[in-house]
Design a protein that fits this description.
This protein has 14 helices and 13 strands. It is an alpha/beta fold. α2 crosses α3, α3 runs parallel beside α4 and α6 packs across α11. The chain is globular, with a radius of gyration of 26 Å.
Length: 428
Amino acid sequence: MKIAFLLHNAYAIGGTVRTTLNLAAALVEQGGHEVEIVSMSRHRRNPRFAVDPRITLVPLVDTRADSDDVRLAAYAEPARDFPAAEKRHKQYTLLHDQRVRAYLEEQCDADVVIGTRPGINVYLSLWGPKRALRIAQEHLRHDAHGKKLRAVLRRHYRALDAVVTMTEADAAVYRAKMPLPGVDVRCVPNIVPAVPVPASDGTSKVIAAAGRLAPGKRFDLLLEAFAAVSAQAPDWQLRIYGAGAEEQRLRDMVAGLGLEGRARLMGAVAPIEPEFARASLVVSASDAESFGMTLIEAMRCGVPVVSTDAPLGPGEIITDGVDGRLVPVGDAFALAAAMLDLIDDEAARKEMSAAALDSAHRYDPEPVVARYDTLFHDLRTTRHRRAWRRFAARTANWTQRKTRSVRDVSHSGRRRTAAPGTARPRLP
């Protein structure tokens, strides 16, 4: 079977790029499939991440300053079909619209086409080959999309075969808030491969955290909690890996809390696993997580995770008290207390380390590929049944609209038959 992934930019660094490459390689290795990755844009000569040589990489628009594409008139015009409500809209042009349409309608010979972000999924719904299975992956939570974008997706996702979420909780939200007759909505988590580094021995006095330095990741809350930890365990260090708009604010917080030398911003590091393996705890203070890759990457390194019970990923990844700890969102005191509990109890910390290693096998390539193969089989065997559900839903919607229209015309007609200014006769 041939599978094509539609990716925003396969040449960039990002969680969706990394997870797509992981899945693509596993579908080749474990599933025996032929895989093609179609990159909407290309901004550099070579991809940042290694691409399995068995995977075909197809760039559509070359955005490099010296490319012929940037001199085309269509490149200077904004996209018309990529939804304006999608946050990446400014990175798409009329040339993207044209190239994606040409690829999907004229060049794509895949049996399965998978989109990997909302705007690309709209492209897929508009032009995806009807003979292929068309699947939308959602790497963000339903509720992370704005109201306008959700309205667009509700209209376009009805034309697809499936919507795949990263968590069971988000799949339930889609089923409840975005009914899609005939569309299979289910969870298939990301693959997190085994790491090529020895597991942590749990003896270092290091707490690690990683992610974009953005407000929602709440590294400010983590620093507040670590200030309380540091007061009782001054020989422990906090290392934060990542880059982003919050960097200077966080550096100011480190100085303001008197944590110089104990809390350090380490910059962006890839791969992150060797750094996690040097730690004894990994902490996440996020307000929300669509999945939680860093949590599983830490567990892969045999490191227990202390995390806020943020919607929607951590609660499905961590079993509280077994392979990590979950604390309420936004509660610096609870976060500090959970860290201190594991700092003080080395035996419990080592038990959790072993449990974390075992638990992380849920995200091995083999079980995830098996779930995708099951999805492909189910979609093929239910194709006619799902098409009937879609037709029945459209018919019911049309009937309801027609009924309302007739009722509205009837009511307006009755209002017009009454002479202006005349009062209804009173009953005796």
